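[audit] Reproducing an earlier prediction to check determinism. Same input, same settings, fresh worker. If the tokens differ from the archived copy the diff job will pick it up downstream; this log only records the rerun itself.
[audit] input (119 residues):
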Amino acid sequence: MEKFDANIPIYIQVVDIIKREIVNGKLKPGDKILSVREMSIKFGVNPNTIQKALFQLEREGFIRTERAVGKYVSDNEELIEVYKKEYIHTIVLQFVQQMESMGIDRKDIIKYLEEENHG
């Protein structure tokens, strides 16, 4: 069960989790996703919260609904790739800002990353 940040609406956090599962390949284009009830159990949240998250994902194009069949991961690989790049950019920017707040400049950040990669 997920631990949710009390400062961010839960449905937004569910949206982010599902997007990450799509980006990392856990959910692939065309895969059927869990039902509202199954997701509600998986995440330990109210079905209305899941419904709101799924509506948001569909509105953004990450999932699609086939009437009377279910919801599926979008086949729009370009959308998924754009989101992946934006997500990576956000994480890297946050990391760099944290390092700079500790007095570490970008040159040293790169040096540390290279050491870690070869470590």
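[audit] rerun output stored. Observation attached for the diff report: The chain has two domains: 10-75, 78-118.
[audit] end
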